[in-house]
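Let's practice the habit of predicting before peeking. Look at the sequence and jot down your guess about where helices and strands might fall. Then scroll down.
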Amino acid sequence: MTLEIRRLTPDDADALFAVRVRALATDPVAFTAEQSQEEALGVPFFRERLGQPLDQAATFGAWEDGALVGMVGLFRPDRPKGWHKVMVWGMWVAPEARQHGVGRGLLAAALAFARAMPDCARVKLSVNTGQLAAVRLYQSMGFEVTGTEPDALRWEGVSYDEHHMERVL
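Done guessing? Here is the structure:
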């Protein structure tokens, strides 16, 4: 098994779209987005997203033997008053690739990118409180829970809480 973690480019839009749709189908309560909404956006949306200004956002992918098996994105707010922080979004690793360091590698790449951003001092994320492996990973990489939002997400009649986590760079 060969693992490569790299920043995704517009040429990776097809693979990113497929992974994103799979993530939403496999782990729907890990995300606020819904599979049908993402499918409706299509590959062009992801191609455009991957072409965003290089200093404001990035999406990283984990490739195992040529297949995209994980992703994580981060973005900086549009307004300069918020540029001291970035937000992680879309963290996901395919079930068959979990427990092999893929998530840790993706998050390490995102944190390295954040450190290189001028004036960036904090990285923030939100995670479903029931996603225990994800919470443990984030804590092991220096993130702390700064608050818990009750009833943050509702899916198929069930309410889910969400931890807001933060790490100082």
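How did you do? The chain has four helices and seven strands.
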